[in-house]
Design goal:
The complex is a heterodimer of chains A (369) and B (133). The longest helix of chain A is centred in the C-terminal third of the chain and has 39 residues. In chain A, strands 1, 2, 3, 4, 15 and 18 form a 6-stranded antiparallel beta sheet that branches. Chain A has 369 residues and is α+β, with helices and mostly antiparallel strands. With 133 residues, chain B is α+β, with helices and mostly antiparallel strands. In chain B, 37% of the residues lie in helices and 18% in strands. Chain B has a 4-stranded antiparallel beta sheet with strand order 1-2-4-3, covered by helices on one side. The N terminus of chain B is likely disordered. Classes of the chains: A alpha+beta (369), B alpha+beta (133). Chains A and B meet through helix 2, strand 3, helix 3 and helix 8 of A and helix 1, strand 1, helix 2 and helix 3 of B. Chain A: This is DNA-directed RNA polymerases I and III subunit RPAC1.
């Protein structure tokens, strides 16, 4: 009787582990899919309001924050939601980028279309919230377009020695850099952006290399857009998540084995400590920081650890890394992504109501005839 | 128009600044059928981002709901019929307790609630982090 009890206890534990953990085995990754769908064996079929349950469980931890680089944890959320937010950060949070380039003169060896493409990829420091999307039928205004201009010419340096070979000394202006983009304020842009003049994020991006006599004269128009249309509008350098690694020790690992065990993981994950057991000090392995583990699975290659260690990842613990291109703060990019997902829902709800009303109207018309 | 800083009003409610298109008639389409419990919704301009999130939220309802103590949704799945067509299909089949349109509406509202909570929790944690620094 007691044996059966302990067995069902073990089964329940195993089911709970399969539900909440992704198992990392020697030959591959197991228990990958979420079991958050009905009639799944590991489901408890509780009579709970899942939204209330989510609100109770969900938490955010900020781990590291700089203006343009941020690491934070979303805990208690399904991959479907976390992935939606990640995808939105990359492809649907709008920024401003150069979209149209009017080339008045270009005698450099960089072809017009290549030049235009290179200009497009330069991040432009401008708050996208203060601009509108320019519709196809609209003409440029100060509310949807930012104008930049480049007038550049390369010449010989008069100070250079006769036999000089270093281009740095021989020429003036042979490197066309992003700092040459001069902002031409239109309308009331000058007053509006007096506190934060619009400029390229980086001043030292190489656009073209030139030689004496070559000229570039262009006008560039920035428009608002999203990463889905072109990567130049993506506000993030990287936006990614990984699941929190977990290292479960079923038995204590002591002595020289402890050193070997610690060496199987990224430095700092497992530490070997001296612990006092049965009247003497022995070395003992302790998992101290599983977060930084790269989950190399090295430990599973060794016979001696086979039944002692279990590697898993926590299924609903997402470690986000959001690195901005420098246009927006990382935290703002994430918040915008949540806003956008929410706005999508609102838009669809409105469309649903609209459609229902339309169908109702059609039905009434049918009744009349 | 001076809305610099991290106040929510500038980006949250002002949809014109976050979205390119306005609500058009063909954003959402579904047929009028005799059986209201099964429907395929066709959404244009959306992809896996919304498709999978919405599928997940609606699928959760297959579990027993508190009040009726019986399942509401029998099936929910999504597909993108062709990669070069900017279109997303969501299929919902429900029990007699509700209709597919209701399930869809509830799903969208739930996803909205989830977003709200993520936003609030993030802002709170962020403020806490700033104070502790």
């Amino acid at each position: 009787m007691s044996k059966r009890n302990s067995k069902s206890q073990g089964n329940a534990e195993r089911l709970e582990q399969l539900r909440t953990r992704v198992m990392i085995e020697r030959e591959g990754v197991e228990s990958i899919s979420s079991s958050e769908f009905p009639y799944h064996s590991s489901n408890r079929h509780q009579d709970i309001d899942y939204i209330k349950e989510f609100i109770k469980k969900f938490s955010v931890k900020i781990i590291r924050k700089e203006q343009y680089d941020m690491e934070f944890d979303l805990i208690g959320v399904d991959a479907a939601i976390a992935n939606a937010l990640r995808r939105i950060m990359i492809a649907e949070v709008p920024t401003m980028a150069i979209e149209k380039v009017y080339i008045y003169n270009n005698t450099s060896i960089v072809q017009d279309e290549v030049l235009a493409h290179r200009l497009g990829l330069i991040p432009i420091k401008a708050d996208p919230d203060r601009f509108y999307f320019k519709q196809a039928n609209e003409s440029p205004t100060d509310m949807n377009t930012i104008v930049f201009k480049i007038e550049h010419e390369c010449t010989f340096s008069p100070k250079a020695r006769e036999d000089e070979t270093d281009p740095q000394k021989l020429y003036i202006g042979h490197n066309l850099l992003s700092e040459s983009l001069t902002w031409i304020p239109k309308g009331d842009q000058e007053e509006q952006y007096a506190s934060c003049p619009i400029r390229p994020v980086h001043h030292d991006i190489l656009i073209a290399q030139m030689r004496p006599g070559q000229k570039i004269k262009i006008e560039a128009h920035c428009e608002k857009g999203i990463g889905k249309d072109h990567a130049k509008w993506s506000p993030v350098a990287t936006a990614s998540y990984r699941l929190m690694p977990e290292i479960i020790l079923k038995k204590e690992i002591t002595g020289d084995l402890a050193d070997k065990f610690a060496a199987c993981f990224t430095k700092g994950v497992v530490e070997v400590e001296d612990s006092y057991v049965e009247g003497q000090f022995i070395k003992c392995a302790k998992v101290v920081n599983p977060r930084i583990d790269m989950v190399s699975r090295e430990v599973l290659r060794h016979k001696e650890f086979e039944d002692i260690v279990q590697l898993t990842r926590i299924r609903d613990h997402f470690i986000f890394n959001v690195e901005s291109t420098g246009i927006m703060d990382s935290e703002k990019i994430f918040l915008d992504s949540v806003h956008i997902l929410q706005a999508k829902c609102k838009r669809l709800l409105a469309a649903l109501d609209h459609k229902l009303r339309e169908q109702e109207r059609d039905r009434e018309q049918m009744d009349i005839y | 128009m001076d809305t610099s800083g991290d106040n929510d009003s500038n980006s949250g409610e002002d949809q014109t600044s976050l979205f390119n298109e306005n609500i058009s008639d063909d954003l959402l389409e579904f047929a009028t059928v005799k059986d209201p419990t099964s429907l395929t919704f066709s959404i244009s301009g959306e992809d896996h981002t919304l498709g999978n999130a919405l599928r997940y939220v609606i699928t959760l309802k297959i579990r027993l709901s508190i009040r009726s103590r019986s399942p509401e949704v029998e099936y929910c799945g999504y597909s993108i019929p062709h990669p070069s067509e900017d279109k997303l299909n969501i299929r919902i089949q429900t029990t007699e307790n509700t209709t597919a349109i209701e399930a869809m509406r509830k799903g969208l509202e739930d996803l909205k609630t989830i977003c709200d909570h993520i936003k609030e929790t993030f802002i709170r944690s962020n403020r806490l982090f700033d104070i502790q620094q």
